[in-house]
Amino acid sequence: MSDGFSMRVDEGDLRALLGKLDGLERLDFEKALMAGGLVVEAAGKENIIYYDFIDTGATLNSTAATVVGDEVHIGPETEYAIFGELGIGQSEKPFMREALNDNKNVIMQAIAAELRDQLRRKV
């Protein structure tokens, strides 16, 4: 059962697959993960505007994607954004959950496109 908040791309599986190809240098997986993260970041910002979750603009302006190890953290940095996202004390505005759930195919396409571009440059 999915909680609607996450999607896992196993870097180990990607590395194992690409490791079978001879003569390739190490690919920049952080850059590939960030390509997917930027899709969610952009969609999250669009949703913040759509849901009119803007008072000072802090939530919109602090929404960013950051690679941390083998994960991409995406979201606003305001402490009150979670209340709007989950509808705590106000109507629910699931701007980040929708950004992820509505774009899973686009996220995977962005990651794959970045890896393909890197492969073309290395071959």
Q: What can you see in these coordinates?
A:
- It is elongated and about 50 Å long.
- The longest helix has 22 residues.
- The N and C termini lie far apart (40 Å).
- By secondary structure, the protein is mainly alpha-helical.
> Span from first to last CA?
40 Å
- Overall geometric form: elongated
Listing every helix as H and every strand as E from the N terminus to the C terminus, the arrangement reads HHHEEHHH
Helical fraction: 55-70%
Low-confidence runs of at least 5 consecutive residues? none
The percent range for strand residues is: 5-15%
Question: Helices and strands: which structural class?
Answer: mainly alpha
Summarize the structure.
The protein is built from six helices and two strands, in the order H-H-H-E-E-H-H-H.
Topology summary:
Elements: H1 11-19, H2 29-50, H3 58-62, E1 64-68, E2 71-75, H4 81-86, H5 95-101, H6 104-122
Antiparallel strand pairs: 1-2
Helix pairs in contact: 2-5, 2-6
Key terms:
123 residues, mainly alpha, two-stranded antiparallel ribbon, 55% helix, 8% strand
